[in-house]
Amino acid sequence: TIMEADQVSTDGMMSSVFSLAATCLTIAMFLSPWKTIRSFQVTKSTGTVAWKPFMWTSLNCALWIAYGTLTSTFPVFFVNMIGLSASGFYMYAYYSYATPSDAADMRSLLMKAAAGLA
To answer: What predicted TM-score, i.e. pTM, was given to this entire model?
Structure first.
């Protein structure tokens, strides 16, 4: 009936709106550390900022990318590629200004992770 067709149309539109909003908000979340990274460049120091949240974000995005690939869900794949790229850049920037102790900690954990994936 016409009423059912209108409901399907409305449901599809609402689904698209929510998908777009979630994608935009997720990208904003992935870009939110930018000011912190910029402060590393200005001060030439990471200060008291921890690096592990950047690593966990990278791992989280990698898992969502795998899920998006396995389920052929392009929005999940796409937004998490942005997140993985951003968090990888954040880790690189952090490493560039990290204390020798933090840099050694990062290298150690990343080498262990790479060995576990090999």
So the answer is: 0.82
